[in-house]
Design goal:
single chain; about 110 residues; alpha+beta; SH3 type barrels
Length: about 110
């Protein structure tokens, strides 16, 4: 499976910087050419040694939690799923804007047709 990992810049520099994962267990040199120079403390999504995009701290935490939930589930542990997906618990699913528009259009058609 190919998955990007949120990592925080811990030593800024030009082109290549040192980044660390949220759990502190993973540290690597990351190519920053796609996102430009970033300051220490910035979160980036890293895939195969390159930063793909800059993330907010909240995005990085949610993504890290989701990856942890996936790893735990693969090991048969589902006891923390609600805590790791706290942003989704007790929330109605949201459709993307293009599907919301289609849903509204279909409801309008049903109201017009007998």
């Amino acid at each position: 499976m190919c998955v990007g990992i949120p990592m925080q810049v811990i030593e800024a520099g030009e082109t290549m910087v040192w980044c660390e994962a949220r759990d502190g267990g993973r540290r690597e040199r990351v190519n920053m050419l796609l996102v430009g120079d970033q300051t220490q403390g910035t979160w980036v999504l890293v895939f195969q040694g390159s930063a793909l995009r800059v993330m907010t701290p909240e995005e990085a935490a949610q993504t890290s939690d989701a990856l942890l939930a996936l790893a735990q589930t693969m090991n048969g542990n589902t006891s923390q799923l609600d805590a790791l997906f706290a942003d989704l618990v007790n929330r109605e699913p949201l459709l993307p804007p293009h599907l919301q528009a289609e849903l509204v259009a279909n409801k309008a058609k049903k109201e017009i047709l007998p």
